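Entry: TetR family transcriptional regulator
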Amino acid sequence: MAKPDAPARLTDRKRAAIVDAAVAEFRTAGYEATSMDRIAASAGVSKRTVYNHFPGKEALFAHIVDRMLLHGSDEYATPYRADAPLRGQLLELVRHKLRLLHDPDFADLARVAIAAGLHSPALARELMERLGQREHAMTAWVRAAAADGRLKAPDPAFAAMQLESLVKGFAFWPQIAMAQPLLSEAEQDAVAASAVDMFLAHYG
């Protein structure tokens, strides 16, 4: 029984090594300078092995973006609860978002994705489609709270985007675009509280 399983385990290990090497290369060299040759050398596998797992650099990068999105997806966030105060639930969601935004891998890959999208409109469209295919935890929460009659949000997706924009205006774009330092825990708490209070003052 062990022998048939061994190749699969080896294949999985090689795939994991390729993805890890690609993340490192994209982070250090950027999208344009990273090649499948570099990734293969870094992963310690042949170029053919890399292509056996991923048809090209675009597909490999898209896989990494998917993995990054999964890390911050609904799976790790608390869903809407009808029996709990809105403010506490929203603060929990926003703090979850802030933890993701302050993850070094996420920040570095976000920079790579933005730069890659500027040079390749086709890749930018693909990344946006992948983003659109996932309903973020915040959107799902706002949709559920509005359906329950506890929020006056006729367009839950728009309302959730407003809340995310309030957060990212302090905890994402300054760090990504202007190399500002990451927020301290106290600063994160202040951003979360003010964003949630502004949101509820309008939609609550």
